[in-house]
Amino acid sequence: MSKEDPLRGIPAEERVLLLPHCLRPSSTCPGRPSKEGFQCPEDCQEACAIRRLKTEAQRLGYKGICIAPGGALALKFIRQHAPHAVVAIACHKELQEGVEAIGDLDGPAPQVATLPLQEDGCVDTEVDLEAALALVRQGL
Questions:
Q1: Is residue 98 part of a domain?
Q2: DSSP string, 45-57
Q3: Residue 67: which domain range?
Q4: Given the DSSP bridges, would you call strands 64-68 and 15-20 parallel, antiparallel or unpaired?
Q5: How many other CB atoms are found less than 10 A from the CB of residue 74?
Q6: pTM for the whole structure
Q7: Tell me, what CATH number does 103's domain have?
Q8: pLDDT (tens digit, 0 to 9) for every residue of the chain, 140 residues total?
Q9: Which of 6, 8, 88, 89 could potentially form a cystine with 111 if both were Cys, beta carbons 3.0 to 4.6 Å apart?
């Protein structure tokens, strides 16, 4: 694996996507929190980054997608799914802590590719959607 493309050669079926729940539009989002992360309704038509990224990861065949309120739930999701690669989008602090925590997990460490949010602040955050979609597709 090269540092430029840690996802090369890892099929979508062995990847998980981690998204922060703060990407959702807080005033109009029809989703609901759950023990497994934020759950989007199947028929959601919200024009948000989460829906676009989730739809693309599902289309590509990702092993799982977690819309997490924080790192603890994201790590639980990684333990449960045991992916070969993790694609994570979050604020700088969460990404840094998450990459360190993933390295501390038992077993073989998955490859990790990250993208920081453009605008953070824990509510109604923003990501460069084109860069995020490119990361989800990277190496495939």
A1: yes
A2: ---SHHHHHHHHH
A3: 12-24+33-137
A4: parallel
A5: 26
A6: 0.93
A7: 3.40.50
A8: 445 788 999 999 999 999 999 999 999 999 999 998 999 998 998 889 999 999 999 999 999 999 998 889 999 999 999 999 999 999 999 999 999 999 888 888 899 999 999 988 889 999 999 999 999 999 98
A9: 6
Is 83 inside any structural domain? yes
User: Which residue reads 């922060």 in tokens?
Assistant: 20
Give 99-120 as a DSSP string: HHHHHTSSSSPPEEEEEE-SB-
CA terminus-to-terminus distance, the chain: 14
The alpha carbon dihedral of 114, 22, 133, 65 has a sign of positive
46 class by beta-carbon count within 10 Å (0-12 exposed, 13-18 middle, 19+ buried)? middle
Is 3 among the domain residues?
no
